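Our example pasted here:


***
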Amino acid sequence: MPPRIASLVPSLTELLFELGLGPWVVARTGFCIHPHDAVAAVPKVGGTKDVNLAKLRRLAPTHVIVNVDENRRETVEAIRGWSDADGKPAAPTIIVTHPLAPEDNLALATELLAHFGSIDGVAERARRFGDALQAELALTRPDGRPVQRVLYLIWREPWMTVARDTYIARVLERVNWQTLPARDGGLSGAARYPTLTGDEPWLAQVDRVLLSSEPYAFGPRHVSEAQALCPQAQVRLVDGEMLSWYGARAVPGLRYLRQIADGGRP
């Protein structure tokens, strides 16, 4: 029986298509926008946090891909509780993902191979993805790079940033950019994305402020606000998809990170 895959994680939807699994993707969220032309034909089932469970169930997935940060536990538990007309368990296979560093994308591809590797061409595409990622990881290293104290902003009103044990922070570590505040947020929960008051003493120590294009769409009009928050810092807009999306985008994302770290224009 061929799989029917529902992806509730935008970056993993993109990875599924990268691995040649697009024909088996039967559901996605409205935030799953890459690859644009290909996903347009896939039914949407709400957002990552507000999944339309009734519509998802009608699409009869055999596999549902979720993520600890992106999706709600209640959503996963509801899917696990599905049963048939006779009350027998009828839940699809749920693939829970939680990559915490760019190198975790290798294990992510291996996990998808465990479920879908028998499909023609998937194993070869996964091998090429792994080789490309290994090459970028080897090129993107902190050796010889000066430490930079970085504030990576993902939201305003209130300002929100990232803890040091998030995927974003660990991507930035590859070029010796250390995020502030200097604390971890744990494996899940709101502490992974701290809220700022704007009067934290350490804001004066920030060397760079990165304004992400998502989930908040920071633009040029916000640069002066960020500069006032960290007067001594260099402020720039960055492509949030490149720095926060794991999966297929990790390969060009590491290349993008090196370019901005070295002062070039991506």
